[in-house]
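re: that complex we talked abt at group meeting.

here r the seqs, copy pasted straight from the sheet so there may be weird spacing, ignore it
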Amino acid sequence: MRTLLRSLAAGVALLTCVAGASAMSSGKPEYGPRDETERGLWQQMDEYERELKNSEFLMNDPALNSYVKGVLCKAVGAERCGATRIYIVRTPYYNAMMAPNGMMIVWSGLLLRTRNEAELATVLGHEFAHFEKRHSIQMYNNVKSKTDAMTWLSVLPGGFLAQMSLMGSVMSFNRDMERQADLVALDDLARNGYDPIAASEIWEQLRAEMDSTSEGRRMRKAMDNAGDFFSSHPNSKERMEYLRAAAIGKRSSGQTMGTESYRRAMAPWWPQLINDQIKLNQFGATEFLLASMARGAWTADLLYARGELYRARGKEGDFASAIGFYKQAIAQDALLAESYRGLGVSLIRSGSKDEGKKALKQYLEKRPDADDHGIVSMMATTS
Amino acid sequence: MAIAATAALLLTPAASFAESRQSLTKEAFAFPAQGQVRVVLFRPDVSVGEQSTGGLDQPNAGWTEQAREQLTAALGKAQAERNIELKLMPELTGDDAKLMSDYRKLFKTVADSVIKHRLFLLDPLPTKQEKFDWTLGEGASRLGALGGGEYGLFFYTMDSYESGSRKLARLLASTISEEQPSEVNMGYAGLVDLKTGDLVWINVDVKMAGDVRTTEGASLRIGELLDGFPVRAGIKATKVKK
Amino acid sequence: MLASLAAPALADWVVMESGAEVKVAKGTMTVKPGAEWNRSSQRPSRRSEAWTRDGINLNELTFFGAINEGESILRQGYTTNEKLPRFKSDMLPTDITEMFEATNRMVLQSPVFKMGKVEPAKLGKHDGVRFSYNYSAQAEDIERRGEAVAAIVEGKLYIVNFVAPSLHYFDAGIGEVRTMVEGITINPPKAKAVDDGKKKKKRKPSSFDVMIEAAKK
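got the structure back, here u go
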């Protein structure tokens, strides 16, 4: 009971169940379910997928979806990726998972954290490898006797997203399976034109994100308990080392990281992705994440995000810090209207009313159709 | 898929229900005595599984498929006896599928309220005790247009059978705590007037008979779920005995 | 927002008669409902109360009265991880809407929360802010709409919030709620009443509290 409630509450639990592809989409006989247990799992996943297609949480923008699918297809080859359907689900945590029927789920928090196509391809390829190697069926049989969570699952309120997450948390793979998936994915990546060094780099970054702040460490502990990506994907030093070692022999000049193409594809989504992260109200973790994304080069977008983070916390000195970040953001990109909004509010809150109202007016000029135009107009003229 | 109210029911000791089955019909509702009556059956929500020792709900594809087919067939037969045409909602795509999904969620939410606040008096709402006036709203007429009918029938059943090893474990009382639900056999059916969106009839049973894995069981289950289903005006309804 | 909190809630309900003036949220506001409502004995926080017509899941009207500096909108117990944002009396109208949004995202565990129009409005005769929004809670995945009016009066925060499924129930209910909000009277607590509020009274635990306690074990 305790485990379940926490998993549901945390909303970060993980999955990655899985093996085998769907008869539904691939038409290849070798991908179908092999016995009654597999058939049952397939069918349940088909039902989940049916619901997922109409979920309020689905990010179904065609351009975004075709981009992500394209990365997987490039990584594993067009003939293999056809067995999967990718669904991008709006959840601000790091995760990707794959169901036995070929349904792959990518959480939006992953898109925020990956920095280039090669890193995204690493994660998608890793999940795909578990799927092709049918790892989950073995694990499913193992956990049947381990938990009573699923009894509750079938009767407790909780959407299918939470249920799937819970399912994942009872289905982590063993070390050998992880290693196999890592190396298969790395091979695929290198062969198909991505720089395989991305594999160790993304694990490094994620590990650092979890370890580098006290809040991050606390979160990591909480997330381990809730059964998220990090508890099911042991993120050891050893892992980074074997990934790095394997990558070195496979690097070649024709390979790419795909940094610029990734940035372009994500640009329209970035404000929403970062906003979802900031509104988690996890100051330390978000502060570290922003710094790791900036890696010394604070862009206008990142500065704006940092201003929002400090302003939302609103502790002693936070408005002054926020004002500084917004001003730097505006210096880099004067068209970033929301920075003027944040600047105006922070100035008024810290006592500089006239200057604040001026900034709010600049926001209104740049966003005449903003949803909050009415109230901000009032704030810019009275308060 | 479990919903909040059904969960609440299942977590309440069975002894607190005088009757495990409760139904309600909107005041004075009957199908018209003459003319065509078409009821659109929305894809039944059916889940059948087996619980292993720890209670992991092991999905069983054979049972679930079989149950859906048999429930659908038995339902068609029951409707034919009432001179009502049963139509299956066609498989929808795109915006239509989203609309259907939205109404399915709304229906579940409404059923949740009816179950909790009215049917089983778990948490009775005082303003509702003399009324049965829940609705999906007039927008539900769009479902009538999609399915070609004047009424819509939602249908939900969830079964989880104990496996042999779990039964043994329960006997040993070692792993299963008292309040845990073990065998689950529950279902509900709800009829919506697709002109007004009004819920005209609902029937909920938290302890259903009938092993839906068999033909006879499915037929028995249908009998229970259609207990009190509205009839044509002028015809006396029959009550199914438990 | 009680709607999406997963607890088999068993409340005591009292009928709010149509057309009869009634004090709400511990007497901090007076309203005159235009239809019959049911008032729940379970409070989303100690400064609030919730009403419904067809079930909390289908229409929920919540009154938050006289939230003090340093208090959160909902009980901290609704979320297990981070601290809910706290009210400060120097907040601007947009700060209130942002606090409301952050609180709900955390309690609902959902990023699917979109703030819509935010505009000046009156809460009774006081200047305030009206905002509309829609969201889905992960546990349910049904789309709901909400509309709230908030005002800061004598340094304390007042909010009236209506939430219902986007299909049918929101439109069916919002008209009467708007009329009720227009006619609302705010009764700021007197100094003495504030002292009373500070007395440590033992509250009877609700089933939410029980569930939250169980989750912590």
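couple things i noticed - Chain C has one domain: 2-191. Chain C has a mean pLDDT of 85.
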